[in-house]
């Protein structure tokens, strides 16, 4: 058996990863299937799907007025059928489209004022950033309406369930990839083996990367399957601004385009995290220390943001480009964020890609550095 297959077997024969995976997939299933039936939404939205027009909004508002007359004084919507409840809120839903268009126009108007102020101050760096942001907003088009529950849920799953699934499975599955051998006394045999240290290092890294890819593929396919089964395939051609989280996003992307970008970034950051966890495992004296260290690497950014409530400042900006938040992805696209490099603005997604590649390369380098210099006890 080759070293690579042997290392891969050691990872996949751990019972803990299957227990964690089944638990998390079960949690997603319970959350997905324990929801109100939305078949009425799909039926009504399909009838109203198509280009957004003022006439369509006016028609929806008239329908709302007619249904309002059916309501009792306390405006209890329970007296309406499922279809009527959807039609009752249709005007507000369509108005969301118009508001998104207006929001982009207002953003460009505000940016024009800020550009003039920056030009007056001679701040070329700020001018470049603001002009880029304006250019991006000018391409945002929210002029088509359709049922979009499936893509909205799939995209949001990456930010929540996908992040947790990838993070926990990597921590549990890879923390002991090297530390187990040290604690069991096998390390000395490995370091003196005829296959060579670098071959062992490559086998461990390749196995860790393939395992990481498998983890991402498993939850992504499961997520697509669940949400497609529940909500169908409508809405993937709509702009991401139809998801409330991306209402202020300057990125002109459909849900399909964004999800490909989203998964690419998530996978790249996941591979980088796998490399870091391998290093943590190599320098840890026991499996428990490795598990704790790997957990800290993954969970620290989440802890700082959620527990300490740091919403601004340089620490928050720095954490935006932590591997955990790059895996989460949404923070790179929800608003315009950039960093000036040689006077030119570089937008957040490109920074996320660069950070992931750099950390991945450093992880490979330091893994080789550490294993070559390890001494046989």
UniProtKB/TrEMBL annotation:
<feature type="transmembrane region" description="Helical">
    <location>
        <begin position="260"/>
        <end position="280"/>
    </location>
</feature>
<keyword id="KW-0812">Transmembrane</keyword>
<feature type="transmembrane region" description="Helical">
    <location>
        <begin position="287"/>
        <end position="304"/>
    </location>
</feature>
<feature type="transmembrane region" description="Helical">
    <location>
        <begin position="347"/>
        <end position="371"/>
    </location>
</feature>
<keyword id="KW-0472">Membrane</keyword>
<protein>
    <submittedName>
        <fullName>Uncharacterized protein</fullName>
    </submittedName>
</protein>
<keyword id="KW-1133">Transmembrane helix</keyword>
<feature type="transmembrane region" description="Helical">
    <location>
        <begin position="205"/>
        <end position="230"/>
    </location>
</feature>
């Amino acid at each position: 058996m080759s070293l690579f297959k042997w290392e891969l077997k050691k990872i996949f024969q751990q019972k803990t990863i299957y227990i964690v995976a089944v638990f998390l997939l079960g949690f997603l299933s319970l959350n997905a299937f324990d929801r109100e039936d939305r078949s009425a939404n799909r039926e009504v939205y399909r009838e109203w799907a198509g280009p957004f027009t003022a006439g369509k909004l006016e028609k929806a508002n008239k329908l709302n007025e007619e249904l309002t007359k059916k309501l009792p004084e306390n405006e209890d919507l329970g007296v309406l059928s499922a279809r009527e409840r959807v039609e009752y809120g249709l005007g507000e839903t369509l108005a969301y489209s118009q508001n998104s268009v207006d929001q982009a126009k207002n953003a460009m108007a505000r940016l024009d004022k800020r550009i003039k102020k920056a030009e007056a101050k001679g701040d070329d760096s700020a001018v470049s950033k603001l002009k880029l942001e304006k250019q991006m907003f000018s391409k945002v088009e929210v002029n088509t309406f359709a049922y979009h529950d499936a893509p909205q849920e799939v995209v949001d799953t990456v930010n929540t369930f996908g992040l947790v699934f990838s993070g926990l499975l990597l921590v549990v599955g890879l923390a002991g990839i090297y530390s187990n051998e040290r604690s069991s006394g096998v390390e000395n045999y490995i370091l003196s083996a005829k296959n060579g240290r670098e071959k062992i290092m490559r086998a461990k890294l390749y196995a860790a990367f393939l395992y990481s890819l498998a983890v991402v593929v498993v939850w992504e396919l499961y997520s697509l399957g669940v949400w497609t089964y529940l909500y169908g395939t409508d809405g993937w051609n709509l702009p991401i601004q139809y998801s409330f989280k991306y209402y202020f996003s300057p990125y002109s992307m459909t849900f399909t385009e964004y999800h490909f970008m989203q998964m690419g970034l998530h996978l790249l950051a996941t591979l980088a995290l796998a490399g870091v966890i391998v290093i943590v495992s190599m320098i840890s004296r026991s499996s428990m220390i490795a598990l704790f260290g790997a957990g800290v690497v993954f969970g620290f950014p989440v802890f700082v943001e959620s527990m300490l409530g740091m919403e601004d400042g340089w620490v928050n900006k720095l954490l935006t480009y932590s591997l955990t938040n790059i895996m989460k992805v949404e923070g790179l696209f929800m608003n315009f964020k950039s960093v000036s490099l040689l006077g030119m603005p570089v937008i957040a997604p490109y920074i996320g890609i660069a950070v992931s590649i750099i950390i991945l390369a450093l992880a490979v380098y330091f893994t080789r550095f550490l294993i070559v210099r390890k001494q046989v006890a």
